[in-house]
Amino acid sequence: MSTDAPADPSRRPFAGSANPRAGREESPLPTADAAYWEAAAASFDDEPDHGLRDPAVRAAWAARLRGWLPSGPAAVLDLGCGTGSLALLAAEQGHRVTGIDRSPRMIARARAKLAGREAAFLVGEAAEPPVGERRFDAVLVRHVLWALPDARAALRRWAGLLVPGGRLVLVEGRWGEAEPIGVSAAELTALVKPLAVRTRMESLVDDPALWGKEVTDERYVLLAEVPGGEAVVAGAGAGLAPPRG
Which part of the chain is the Methyltransferase type domain (predicted)? Predict the structure, then answer.
């Protein structure tokens, strides 16, 4: 499964425990089905915020990552990495990236995209990353929680993969008008707060460059720092910086 919501997220179900619609059988497409993401791999990067082929879209995501990830070289785990577009930006900023996706075709494309860089990609489940005893300075997850069967359990697992003072970087949203799907910022904040010493939420609605178009639905990032004292993430200063501008 990739890090990104599909091109038409209003057609997709939410399977996460944070959403009261979880468990309904009305959805026409299986978000968590591995075959779906295998089939999607060939055209996945055609979406502006997936492939980041537009220089303006790419620059917008690169700027955001600089503010969300540690300022110095860090170990970053990208869960549901898809074809590796965000992993590539993180690697270009000096980070050591490990990407996980359940789709072998997505992983093959990510490996090709980051060939020669300090990055590793593994086929596996985002909810249970196959990283053994490794620990990371940051766990980056984009548009994955909304498709997981147990968001609360996944968040606990991800927090446990962080070094003391490490951070979760969770890009999520809620789409659709009549019957919205996804995870609202309020829902996700409530799930994360028991795991974190501090959190910060930024709306991503007012930056059309991130999506290659104007958007009106809820899109945001939630940054959460796990316990670890004053020395937070390697090279990250004294914790989460205040929001930009």
Answer: 77-170
Instruction: Output the six-digit token pair for 32.
Output: 């968590």
Task: Return the amino acid letter for 182.
Answer: G
In a domain, 234, yes or no: no
Amino acid sitting at position 24: R
Predicted structure pTM score: 0.79
CATH of the domain at 165: 3.40.50.150
What sign results for the dihedral spanned by CA atoms 30, 156, 130, 95?
Answer: positive
Helix segments in 82-213, DSSP class H: 85-92, 104-113, 151-160, 185-192
pLDDT band, very low/low/confident/very high, at 7 (cuts 50, 70, 90): very low
| Domain contains 139 | yes
Q: How high is the pLDDT of residue 214?
A: 80
Say yes or no to pLDDT of 175 above 50: yes
What is the rounded CA–CA span in Å between residue 18 and residue 20? 7
Q: Strands (DSSP E) along 109-217, which ranges?
A: 119-123, 136-142, 162-175, 181-182, 198-203
Query: What is the number of domains present in the chain?
Result: 1
Confidence band for 33, pLDDT divided at 50, 70 and 90: low
| Measured distance CA(187)–CA(34) in Å, rounded | 26
- Report yes or no on 28 lying in a domain: yes
Residue range of the domain that includes 109: 15-225
Number of H helices, E strands in the chain: 7, 8
Which of these, 15, 36, 158, 173, lies nearest to 98 by C-alpha position? 158
